[in-house]
Amino acid sequence: MTELNAAAEARAEEPPLIAMHGITKVFGSLVANDHIDLAIRAGEIHALLGENGAGKSTLVKILYGLLEPTEGEIRWRGEPVRLSGPQAARALGIGMVFQHFSLFENLTVAENIAAAMPPEMSLAEVAAKAREVSGQYGLPVDLDRPVWTLSAGERQRIEIIRCLLQDPQLIVLDEPTSVLTPQEAERLFVTLERLAASGCAILYISHRLEEVRRLCSSATILRAGRVVATIDPRAVSAREIAGLMVGTALHDVVALRGAAEGAPRLVVRGLSLPPEEAHGQTLREIHLTVRGGEVLGIAGVAGNGQGELFAALSGERLAGAPEAVEIDGRPVGHLGVTERRRLGAAFVPEERLGHGAVPDHRLAENTLLSRHGTGGLVSRGFVLADATRALAQRIIETFDVRKEGTDPRARTLSGGNLQKFVVGREILREPGVLVVNQPTWGVDAGAAALIRQALVNLARQGSAVLVISQDLDELFEMADRIAVIHAGELSTPKPTGDLTREAVGLLMTGAAASKGTVHAH
Amino acid sequence: MRIELQQRQAPSAVARLLAPVLALAAAFLLGGIVVAAMGRSPLAALDVYVLQPLSDPWALQEMVVKATPLVLIAIGLSFCFRANLWNIGAEGQFIVGAICGSTVALATHGTDAGAWVLPVMLALGTLGGIAWASVPAFLRARFGVSEILTSLMLVYVAELILDYLVRGPWRDPKGFNFPQSVTFDDAATLPFLADGGRLHIGVLMAVVAVVVAFVVMGHTIFGYRLRVTGEAPRAARFSGFSERRTTFIVFAISGGLAGLAGIVEVAGQIGQLKPSISPGYGFTAIIVAFLGRLNPFGILLAGLVMALTFIGGEAAQITLRLPFDLTRTFQGILLFCVLAADALVTYRVRLVRGAPAQAAGRAA
Questions:
Q1: Cystine design at A84: which of A16, A170, B307, B354 (Cβ 3.0–4.6 Å)?
Q2: pTM to 2 decimal places
Q3: φ and ψ at A254, to 5 degrees?
Q4: Å from B305 to nearest chain A CA?
């Protein structure tokens, strides 16, 4: 270890591997990056932190040559460079692992890796190199498997291998653990530490503070396009870091567990549903009961049937047998989403833009989306424009939705504010049953806390709240019971107090399913 | 070096309003170049195409008469296009509407059937158009077949049926072997708005359609449903609007109005069936719908503009001996300019040096 430290000290003398000085990027009237300074040394794992809209992705795009800065200078090993495109960035030695994978589902792992390599390399050569890298850094993948059979963690390993084959000196990872189970994340950290030890610099973008504190030796925090602090995350508490990101102190969600057990309000019995899309997930024999007064959480890695379950519960897809889904004792499996709403149910889908709200419609019009059939907004087929505006205003005030202008288009709101609007729209109707898919996905910490509190409060007033989420911390904070969805099957819900993160993580990988099946997703 | 389209932060409202006007100006400029290339004076063509019809009362009436089917059809199409469904076969629905409505006119020919004839003709014409449009709607909703192809192909089927009827069973025995039906009785002809004028009551129907469409589109939950379906299909599903039902309804509306336009044209303007009852109204109406920005009053204006090109085109054939195809060419240029202007309102064109962004080009 002393040798490593000595090496690190020696490196500290050199100019940083990459240094960005006074980087400014202006889009119209919006200053996305405002004189940002960022330096990363070889062998360092550096975190880039900030809420959504703080300017992280703009900065990363500049670093990867996808955007040109309006102002500012980038130095690579002390020399000024111009990154005119991703090829120029790669030529320097900058590699990028994106949050959304760009893989061909129907090709094998080896073929996907070869697609990113120079055409003169044969598939066998590519496979040999990939195997070497995969062994060296602990990134096991089966090169001959088609990608669609792989889990998100395995897919990410392909992206990382693909990136490593370019021999990068700086690797940028954008929210790498957002799709991983805790165990998969742990494995990724080991790989990243090995990479750093071999001298590679890593820029690690995340909003999960605990893992940043565990992994990174320095962190740059952005807020509203500016650097607010450069810190050693190991020396500062997660709460303090969050405070720096948001600009204000945060409140914990008050869960007030142990509310009286109410009657079952949402019951699912033996729900099975084939997928609608080619690589979708089949739902297998799902049973669950949500009682009035409780929050039931469903954990799971993305793509294990969460979207399909949401569609079946909301009635966007009919569940076949009427008895498969019951709301307050009424079989509704054969009823559409409007009829289910009339029975007192409400739904919040995962995607805000284009699913939970129409991007180009104003907020007043967006109140109609889920509430046109439940009274008050439409009379004899005519839209009551004043009523929609009044309702939008009520949502905006109750849920502290920040926006520009009196009635802006949905797309102009930040992710957190639009999510507050969409969740608020459903909560204000005082539903007996609320099903939420990823309530705080990509939402800033302040908005996330407000949304979680609102969901818990709704349950405490006697509603049944079902929360589907990939964020384990969120579920442990809010849910009374937690079940795990894996490969379209739902585990038996258990009281949150009896569970550990590790136990839930194991269920998320399907390891505890004890059926010995190879997991397809 | 490459060309990139960048979405504008906030498209200017003024630009949005000016876009059709600028598109029209650009189309005239390009049309003038084509005319010059054919060895005629562009100024003379402008005079014949635009200025003369606008300064002649008879031609002005004619313009309104020609705009009537265009507006009726385009209003129907605007419902489809709003919902992001593509009925390209209004021409066929127009012809089938004309045929279905005409059955009554031909069956009662020479009898003293009374005032019921005309309403029944209009109703049958509308139903014929609906039936013809239901075929692509059904194929799309049930089997996912592209409605663009099926609706377009049915145009040719309709044209051939009409051709067969007027050359065969429905040919006027006293018509010197011309492929045309008998001339409709008065009871089967749309009354004129004023004696000695050219305007028939079909003109009023077009105006009513414009007003009704305006109210439905802007103020009803049905109009909202169409806009949500067109702009965000997943949100429409979340809203509980069935895509299948929307498909059937908008095809019925557009087919019905096209069919109505067909029987109105035959009963009001031509007075008999013949192979060429339409100079391509069903296709031109697509341009009208877009030139009018899918706004009912915009469509009314755009219909008048496009009607002008038909009248000017006829005049140019006679005085400048320019082929009628030039009119079609001009209409095509106009559609192109309208779409380009729309794109430029929403996007900014940028020349970018360097290689294309490869990461974005890879498959997901």
A1: B354
A2: 0.77
A3: -90, 110
A4: 30
Domain ranges of chain A: 12-246, 253-344+433-521, 354-430
CA proximity to A298, closest of A437, A153, A450, A445:
A437
Which of A337, A349, A358 has the CB atom closest to B231's CB atom?
A: A358
pLDDT at A1: 45
Residues of A with CB below 8 A from B228's CB? 358, 361, 369
- A30 DSSP assignment: E
How many separate helices (H) and strands (E) can be counted in chain A?
17, 23
Residues in A closer than 8 angstroms to B239, CB to CB, are 337-338, 368-370, 372
Cβ-count burial B65-90 (b if 16+ within 10 Å, e if not) = bbbbbbbbbbbbbbbbbbbbbbbbbb
pLDDT in tens, B13-71: 788 888 888 998 999 999 999 999 988 889 988 888 888 888 888 889 999 999 999 99
What residues have CB less than 8 Å from B173, skipping those under 6 apart? none
User: Which residues of B fall within a CB distance of 8 Å from A315?
Assistant: 240
Question: By the CB < 8 Å criterion, does A378 face chain B?
Answer: yes
- Please give the Cα distance from A400 to A215 (Å, whole number): 35
For the A12-246 domain, the top CATH level (class) is: alpha beta
Structure tokens at A108: 């094998």
Given this chain, do its domains A12-246 and A253-344+433-521 carry the same CATH topology?
Answer: yes
CA dihedral angle for residue A472, residue A477, residue A481, residue A482, rounded to 10 degrees: 0
Provide the CATH topology of domain A253-344+433-521: Rossmann fold (3.40.50)
CB contact under 8 A, B359 and A373: no
Residue span(s) of chain B under CATH 1.10.3470 come to: 41-321
The residues near B214 (Cβ < 8 Å, ≥ 6 apart) are: B296, B297
Domain spanning B41-321 has what CATH number?
Answer: 1.10.3470
